[in-house]
Amino acid sequence: QQQQQQRQHSKGAETDGKDGNRPKTVMEAAKRGIAFYTMLQSPDGHFAGDYGGPHFLLPGLVVAWYVMGRPAKMISPPQQALMLHYLKVHQQEDGGWGTHIESPSTMFGAVICYLAVRLLGGDKDAEWIARGREFIQKEGGAVMTSSWAKFWLCLVGCMDWKGHNSVPPEMWLLPNWFPFHPGRLWCHCRMVYLPMGYLYGSRFIYSDAETDPLIAELRKELYCQSYETIHWDSTRHLVAPMDNYSPIPVFMKFAQNCLSLYENWKIFRPFRDAVRKAGLRFCSEYMRAEDLQTNYIDIGPVNKALNMVSAFHAANNDISDPAVCSHMMRVPDYLWVAEDGMKMQGYNGSQCWDTSFAIQAVWECGLLDRFPILSAKVWAYLERTQILSTDTSQSSPAFKYESYVNRDKFYRHVSKGGWPFSTSAHGWPISDCTGEGLKGVLALMDSPVVMGAVKDGILKSIEPSRLYDAVNVILTLQNEDGGWATYENNRGFGWYEELNPSEVFGDIMIDYSYVECSMASLTALAEFREKFPHHRTKEIMIAVRRGREFMKSIQREDGSWYGSWACCFCYGCWFGTEGLIKAGESHTSPAIKRCSQFLLSQQRANGGWGEDFTSCYDKDYAKNGMESYGDDGSGVVNTAWALMALSEAKCTDVDAIRRGVRYLMKRQLDCGDWPQEGIAGVFNRACGITYTAYRNVFPIWALGRCAATYGDILNEES
């Protein structure tokens, strides 16, 4: 039922033609938007949405499925057909595939998607598949793809391991004080290269690679010369210009060449074999801990597939091994069906994130008790989702890893009390998700209906001690620079980026402080302080002040903030403006005025704002970014973010606010939905990702905030 609703929602529900009564006021539009969105709320209280977009996720799962013997309980024949459909409809006109669905073709996307198409049963003689092959060969063959794609090719037996740079598992044996230690890496980077190290160190190859006729065909199709004649070591550094967003620095190439000698010279073999065994043992233990801490979901889709193959290898390729079975049972958590087929999402969903935003939007509209069922269900969901805070979660194997000894051993920050991006079972708290989850709970505490249901025992209570735990997570995540990163404190150094081996992603080596994480964290502390003024008062005051100074320090000269997790400057400006004002900055301060002036300068003739993922990629406002996927260059999500920033700043240009609000009202469908436009999210600078919930949540929120700030004047003609 949830998927049926979302399939229609992902397209933008069409007007039924029976309701021609358009909202006359801003609040009427907001109410209609909430009424529609309520229909999409899941029974457990969360709002589900499509969190797909990247093209390198599904192929990794397909490779894992194939090398593990193609178990139907992991990917069934009907699912194979849906995945093939997804890959077909997202093929570019030139025959290739992009890194994500709005990206031009890249060799990263093309090679790995072509590999998945063929492994899923695609006929090599089909016209669309032949075009994909032609694109790859025109660009020099699979030796020109990026390292992550090469890794999957090695696993399935379509590339010799000598064609991939070393990922030595024994790096984990370095002492923790060592300046470059993998435990200091950003957790997503760390948890991907952990199983990569294990599989590289084990030289895992699909067991039937030499006898499988499909692998023999792929060895011919993917390259421009005979597979047997390729000098693999000389291809390690090859990468197509279209993939080379973050070129491998000279020092890293030198280090990789040294590691190649280490891997291949016999003189190093006795030492290498000894330390490799110990490194593999630690990697296996660490992956086991990650699996248990996340209930076999794992932090993200890439390490999910890699951990699953690693568990399969550790079980001597026994598909019935309990750990392997537990992994396969969690694969559906990542799968999503929409009108474009079946995809693998960028996480096991964005449930808690979207739901926390949604309830704050309803709260700011002043309509919590107007939609009591929605509000009560969100309270129940947030209560259940707080990490390691319920009886159920504390009885799971994950809870024992919260001890200091285990957190220290496996490089984990404190988790208890945080909120996740997705689900409690996922188990990784994030600073901004904890902040938004906490703010969602605090907002619901203003609802007499919800609090009455808690008092009567209809809803479970969230005791103050649990909110104190959330505050503790936020306070301990603040970095030395005063800002907040994502999952952990910044543990490494800027020069770690000189060792970035990925080519296709930027700034992935360490966890940086971001405007988004900083705003969510410090505003949560500020709002918590209003309701609980006596808890850790001085610490919170100092943290908010330091966060405010950090956010001012990263404001760009043009007055904007760069948004790292969505597209891009409109998003960053909302976080920057709201964060500063909630931290005590005056509405008339130069920082706030400069940001407002920046946004006003980007408003389009139709009243809206628009930019796409190229703003993040190029780090420059994409003035025409929404021309292909929006409405005359504007988009409802960008417009909502801009209006939220301007109204929080109490912008005096009321006509600009009115024009923006009218744009949102004009774009609203009769049913209360808004049309699906371009990708709204981004990560690692270079990859777009879908958030279908944003087109509902943020227009509602912006309408409510603008109505509360400016009143009926917005309903008048200019």
The order of strands across the largest sheet is 1-2
Kindly, what is the distance between the CA atoms of the first and last residues, rounded to a whole number of angstroms?
A: 44 Å
Instruction: Please bin the fraction of helical residues.
Output: 40-55%
- How is the biggest beta sheet arranged? 2 strands, antiparallel
The mean pLDDT is: 94
Task: Provide the gyration radius in Å.
Answer: 25 Å
Number of strands: 6
- Fraction in beta strands: under 5%
- Stretches where pLDDT falls below 50 for ≥5 residues? 13-19
What would the principal axes of the Cα set say about the shape?
Answer: globular
SS class: mainly alpha
Enumerate how many helices there are, as a single number.
Answer: 28
